[in-house]
Design goal:
- With 445 residues, this protein is α/β, with parallel strands linked by helices.
- The chain contains 9 helices and 19 strands.
- The longest helix has 23 residues.
């Protein structure tokens, strides 16, 4: 994080990335002195409400973060920025997004937690759009023109006022990650599951928190000791922050997590925290051994929608098969419960070297009516595409000796992966077919 003084002194010359948070009310003109190299500009957590008309002078600018500012409209000058492709206005006061505000090369647009009631039809002209984050607005409908955004892979619609989930959305050829909880159209979905949640209440006073294990958008996870009836048990406790995330509401996440029930490849819930001193919500989970690691890293600015991995990462074929077989079984179980995970990614999978794995993070999950065969089939095939991306990641990192020794098995998996990624959703395999095929290929240790 730079300071305004460093910028004004000329110390930042030649930088490609600039982050500046200093209660700014105006765009610092000294930034234009970085125009020849600046690609990423982060002016989040200021008090900005406008951008200069000559912003396109930043001719190398590709990424612009303006989160937690005071914008009420997306400035139209953005459309003139020649290389700008990622734009984020999370947690502003946006009420207006005009037809001419966005550059045609936009790939990634974040408008989470604003006050938008409508979106322009011109979004349909963003042919390169891959990621669209709209959670936490007041949208009552989506423009049908979005149906022409055939590169759209991830969309977050949670916590809006949508009265219907459009059929064209379910037919997008590359859509793989969808979140929609907290809208009127799905208010009744999962009612039976929510009402049947009978979790053990766990007193906050019976939990002794130790170190923080991790932190996500919706909450903080701690290692803890649970004292009960004279015994103690090491557990993991997730304390929810209560704030809206890019995926949706923590309350919706909690409900889906509790309704998911028990499965060998899901981290089951032991109970619900009660009587937190700050009245925060929380869930208690079994403690996962330290040899379980996150399978991959989250998407980067460059990869946009795809997970990232260290360059040396390899996945032996037998291990990959065990991982994907377990995860496929977990997702199929969720669908049987009327739950769409919505965020099926390697960075939400915990695994160890044997291939044992757990699917975690219900932040993007949503309920659906499993008796609505058209809807449930369409949602299932969206998640099949996400599974295809995961399978592709693992197969692309198969060690050469495995390719030589298990070429036929690898080729069968490759054909399966390609089918999962079909641009025609109806051509993708069902989860039942996936499970049967994977079970027939698993290599026993």
């Amino acid at each position: 994080m730079a300071t305004l003084e460093e910028l004004q002194s000329g110390e930042m010359q030649g930088v490609k990335r600039l982050s500046l948070s200093d209660q700014l009310t105006q765009f610092p003109p000294e930034i234009f002195g970085l125009a020849d190299g600046l690609e990423i500009l982060d002016l989040s957590n200021n008090r900005l409400s406008a951008l200069p008309d000559d912003l396109p002078r930043l001719h190398q600018l590709k990424v612009l973060f303006l989160n937690n500012n005071q914008f009420e409209a997306v400035p139209e000058v953005l459309a003139q920025c020649p290389q700008l492709s990622m734009i984020s206005f999370k947690a502003n006061q946006l009420k207006t997004l005009s037809e001419t505000a966005l550059p045609l090369q936009t790939r990634w647009l974040i408008l989470t937690n604003n006050q938008l009631t409508t979106l322009p039809a011109s979004l349909g002209q963003l042919s390169k759009l891959q990621k669209l984050m709209l959670a936490g607005n007041h949208l009552q409908a989506l423009p049908e023109e979005l149906a022409t955004c055939h590169n759209l892979e991830l969309i977050r619609l949670a916590a809006n006022q949508l009265s219907v989930l459009p059929n064209w959305l379910l037919s997008l050829p590359r859509l793989a990650w969808l979140a929609y909880a907290g809208n009127p159209f799905c208010a009744e979905w999962g009612t039976a599951s929510k009402q049947s949640q009978d979790l053990e209440p766990i007193e906050w006073g019976d939990l002794t928190l130790a170190e923080e294990l991790g932190q996500g958008a919706s909450g903080v996870i701690y290692r803890a000791v649970w004292q009960r009836q004279g015994t103690s048990q090491t557990v993991a406790v997730k304390v929810f922050k209560g704030d809206l995330t890019s995926d949706g509401s923590p309350l919706d996440e909690m409900q889906a997590c509790m309704a998911a029930g028990s499965h060998p490849h899901l981290v089951s819930v032991l109970g619900q925290v009660v009587n937190h001193p700050e009245q925060k919500a929380g869930l208690v989970f079994p403690f996962i051994e330290a040899d379980y690691k996150t399978l991959g890293g989250p998407p980067s600015l460059a990869s946009c929608t795809r997970d990232t991995y260290a360059p040396e990462t390899q996945f032996p074929l037998a291990v990959s098969l065990r991982i994907v077989s377990g995860i496929a079984a977990a997702v199929a179980h969720l669908h049987d419960c009327g739950i769409l995970h919505g965020d099926l990614y390697a960075h939400n999978i915990l695994s160890r070297t044997s291939g044992d794995s757990f699917l975690s993070d219900f932040g993007a999950a949503g309920f659906f009516d499993p008796t609505d065969l058209h809807l449930s089939s369409a949602l299932a095939r969206i998640e099949v595409r996400a599974f295809g991306c995961l399978l592709e990641d693992l197969l692309d990192r198969c060690p050469p000796p495995d390719l030589a020794a298990q070429g036929d098995r690898w080729q069968t998996l490759k054909h399966l992966q390609q089918a999962c990624l079909s641009h025609q959703p109806s051509d993708r395999p069902t989860w039942r077919h996936l499970l049967e095929t994977l079970d027939s290929l698993v290599i026993e240790p």
